Amino acid sequence: MGVSVAIAGNWRTVVGFPYNVSCRQGDGLRRQYARAAHLRAVIIADPHVRNIPQQEKQPMIRAFLFDMDGTLIDSEILWVEAVEMALRDRRIAVTREEALDIVYGISWDEIYEIIACRYPGVFEDMQAMYADLQPRFLALRDSHDVLIPGSIALLKRLSKDYPVAIVSGSFEKDVAHGVRLMGVEPYIRFFLSGDHYAPGKPNPACYRMAAERLGLPPDACLAFEDSEAGIRAAKDAGMYCVALARPDRPWQDVSRADWALEDLNDFTPEAYAQRQGDPGQM
Questions:
Q1: pLDDT of residue 203
Q2: Same domain flag for 270 and 170
Q3: DSSP letters of the chain?
């Protein structure tokens, strides 16, 4: 079950743990799931060769979709810091590991749900939380180099031969600013933000919407993601997915991805098709 909350006048569905599960039980379930996921994790020995099960169906990729936060822009870790600051300003002691557990690879709906569950009354609603966190995030972003060069280079390269779009869970104004910051507006067909669809990742609604806008079936699209939630969204939509698994960022379960790379600049459609067993399909 979920609950609907009003965000800037729009109703969105919060997806996460059932509300008949206590905060303590919910945290326990999250830890159990993380441990189980860790056992399923892909052991990476070489950035170009990954032991990830191949799809039985061979790819005919006709479009590419990019997540933004953590995939194109190294912004997710800054949201973690923003949450830390907001909670500490309210005299709530929080460790980096706790903040990572709240934020990293998790949709905004679930972030609010977790905070409201663990720290009742800290934020009146989602809109109040975002209004508090965004200025903190902007100050951090302006003092850091947040671009991920290899990912941006890949987006620009692919756009020469394929339709490319961005599918993000962030709010529209943050995605629009990110597009300008990366200088990729001429290279993408469109972007989707969390304001455009519901529920958020890991629900596949965002990727299904993107495929519909491109006029393509989901299995003609490949998504680039950095988080477990994003990978789940892409795969459950029926798309192929390549994970960005950087060793200097918090661990995510990428075992459902079709390929995992430490730098997306190492990706080529030809190498991916060959990896999947048919080099002539792209």
A1: 92
A2: yes
A3: --EEEEETTEEEEE-SS-TTS-HHHHHHHHHHHHHHHHHTPPPPSBTTB---PPPSSPP---EEEE--BTTTB--HHHHHHHHHHHHHHTT----HHHHHHHHTT--HHHHHHHHHHHSTTSSSSHHHHHHHHHHHHHHHHHTS--B-HHHHHHHHHHTTTS-EEEE-SS-HHHHHHHHHHHT-GGG-S-EE-TTSSSS-TTSTHHHHHHHHHHTS-GGGEEEEESSHHHHHHHHHTT-EEEEE--TTS-----TTSSEEES-GGG--HHHHHHHTT-TT--
Shared-domain flag, residues 208 and 183: yes
4 touches 100 (CB < 8 A): no
CATH of residue 258's domain is: 3.40.50.1000
Task: For 138, list phi and psi in degrees, rounded to 5.
Answer: -60, -40
Q: 122-157 pLDDT, tens per residue? A: 999 989 999 999 999 889 988 888 999 999 999 999
d(CA 282, CA 182): 27
Count of residues for the chain?
Answer: 282
Q: Which regions of the chain are under pLDDT 50?
A: 1-22, 24-25, 28-56, 279-282
